């Protein structure tokens, strides 16, 4: 049939598009994470001029969740913002926070890893988990 793509070529193109999108999503997730981290870090530092560090960090963390949702939907995964995904998305970061604290505690207080290294290890472990959970929440909404 003239003008039509054979089914095998079409399937290959679909697979290539899907795998390319995933690579693009990972790159955009890393960019978003860097921008989000820098922004919320700066916000937390700024707020520390007027309040205790725990409150400043908490406000910065919540602002980071809001920013992560906005950037994840529009930039990373290119999905529409929906009430269902907006309601579920913060759970990703609650789980990430709890996992990070558990990893930090175990690394520092149980194993004896230096704090600076434990923080880096915690980020390295939780980043791919956060990516997968974010992707699932936004795609299943």
* Average pLDDT level: 86
Please report the distance between the alpha carbons of the first and last residues. Answer: 39 Å
Beta-strand segment tally: 0
Topology as H/E string?
Answer: HHHH
Strand content: under 5%
What's the Cα radius of gyration? 19 Å
Helix content: over 70%
Provide the low-confidence segments as ranges: 8-19
Structural class by sheet pairing and helices = mainly alpha
Q: The biggest beta sheet, please?
A: none
**Mass-distribution shape:** globular
SS summary, helix count: 4
Describe the structure.
The chain has 141 residues and is mainly α. 85% of the residues lie in helices and 0% in strands. The protein contains 4 helices and no strands.
Write out key terms for the chains shown.
globular, 141 residues, single chain, 4 helices
């Amino acid at each position: 049939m003239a003008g039509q793509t054979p089914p095998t070529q079409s399937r290959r193109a679909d697979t290539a598009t899907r795998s390319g999108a995933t690579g693009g999503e990972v790159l955009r997730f890393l960019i978003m994470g860097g921008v989000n981290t820098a922004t919320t870090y700066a916000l937390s530092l700024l707020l520390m001029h007027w309040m205790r560090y725990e409150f400043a960090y908490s406000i910065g963390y919540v602002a980071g969740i809001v920013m992560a949702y906005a950037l994840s939907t529009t930039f990373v995964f290119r999905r529409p913002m929906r009430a269902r995904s907006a309601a579920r998305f913060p759970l990703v970061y609650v789980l990430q926070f709890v996992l990070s604290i558990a990893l930090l505690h175990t690394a520092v207080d149980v194993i004896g890893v230096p704090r600076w290294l434990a923080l880096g290890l915690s980020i390295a472990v939780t980043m791919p988990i956060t990516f997968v959970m974010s992707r699932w929440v936004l795609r299943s909404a």
